[in-house]
Amino acid sequence: MRNRWFMLAIAVAAALPAAAAPGSISGTVTPVGGSAQLTVVYVEKGPEAAPRAAPVRKDLEQKDTEFQPRATWVRAGDTVQFTNLDNFYHNVFSPTPGNEFDLGLYRGGVAKSLELTRAGEIDVYCNIHPNMKAKLLVVPDDRSAQVAADGRYSLSGLPPGDYVIVAWSAVHEPVRREVRVRAGETTRSDFSLKARGAAGPHLNKNGEQYGRYR
Amino acid sequence: MRNAALALLASALLAPSLRAEDAPVRAGEGGRGLAHLSLMDGVRLRLTGYVDAGFFATQGDGTAYVRDAGKLLHPEYQGVVPWVFLGDPWGNPINSQGDSADLGLDRTNVPRFDPIQSAGHPSFLVNMVDLGLAASIGESFFFETSIGFEPRQGRLGSSGDQFDVDLAYLEWVPFKAVDLHVFAGKFESTFGIEYRTRKAPDRFGVTPSLISRYTVGTVTGLKVRGGFFDQRVTVNLAVTNGGTFTEKFAHFFNEVDMNGGKTLSGRVSVVLPLPFTAEIGASGEIGAQDEQPSDTTVQWLAGADLRLSAGNATLKAEILRGHADGGGIDQAARLRVTGWYGELQYQLLPWLGLLGRVDRRKANLLAFPNLYLTDLLRVTGGVRFDISWNVIAKLEYLHLVEVTGPELADDVFTSSVIFKF
Q1: Closest chain A residue to B135, measured at CA
Q2: What is the ipTM of this complex?
């Protein structure tokens, strides 16, 4: 009987694929020109991701006719709450294809929230105040990390395989890179980000120029 | 108990708690809430407008000037001009267009253009019904027109209902990455900053400044506007039929030019790199004077403006100097004017705003045979209620001080309720 259980355990173990030890990616991100308040490195493509953690909510406030902070990031499925802390009306909208939204006009003291399910960079504007601009980054899953103040980042717990990772900042051109992760190893990948060119004027939510007061 | 209730009420008013909306909006679903009508490929139409209705009450007979009978106060004009008037006919406006409650009678009791003619009686009034049509053609072309209707009585001296094609222009944006706009048609002024809020829904208070009559008029011609250095420097240049005046008493404005000389106008502004909004600008305008045939009779304006905005407070100020040669006895009026205003707006609560303004205008206007001598100081206080994003109510009181000449009973209380769409 005892031998039978032992043989069964060996057979089951042999039948299961060998669970490879996870690897990781780490390195540094160096901005060249322009000062980034927020830099994120994330997996854009790779082996299937583990189920993600519970969604969270982040805040992006409208205060003194500015979005604060001017850039933030979430994971797909998370929610961003836009709180109007000014004593007058604001609007929040985005014309970014695939992630368009319009939260409408709302007065100070009111918060509206936005659920983001599709990965990508989103331009956020106010339909009344053309100077109000923010960028939202939605990353696909939990395989993402905010770059530390010293420029270091680390993506750990990655199954072995080929990945496309992206280093992103709101004021620099994003950089994509293919990286191979091997079992139990750390792959180093350093990024150097160049500043984005000056953005031209944007249109209002109706696709028109802002106002006639020129 | 009563104090506790009052404290609770006060805290509820002064510190409104954040109110979250019902359910999150999901990005990418349903697109944007576009408010336009698609006509055909690349052409979209949008209807805009507002209704501005109010109630006003004035001191005296509703006028803000008086005749210097016998030239007792200004004997130096004996034999120079037949009639001398003191005060400012447009110093006691009751709405955003600057209409006076009453313009009084002409020197010979001849009716003059006087759209309201309240004779000093308190009155309700629909100040303006404005309809606008905006059309976008792709991302490079934009057309806007705005027509104002003013329901007025039609008795002697008033033309009755009026309508005015206020704006009708095509805007072309030739480059995507460069903030450059070319306008053709009838468009907004290039002078100063008050034109940005000349319409009732955009104005914080009810009435315009004393110098707005020189700066906010829409003009017909060509304009180029450029924003540089991340829009910190803005340049506006225009060549137009006439100037940016809206002065209705002596007329310094031609819709269709009466002379061959065009008016050149422009403004340069800089937004300073400070932790709060600080915009300074300088404006100028020069051209052949309107309402007369000569190309060499000149009218000009020069001015400076300032806008500071920090938190819930905004301070605006403008100063200008103006000159019109005048065309002689049978032609256009002669003008010498200086003026300024400072306006403080404070949004105390999301639904409650406070306004304070001081302005002054000194003018010598000869519209032969009438000479108007003005040195007016005006103090204005107002309250604004933002009932919703498209319903606004405002109250305002204007106290007029005739710095020289007789003090007149010409203070004004006025109000306005605006529905915009």
Answers
A1: A208
A2: 0.79
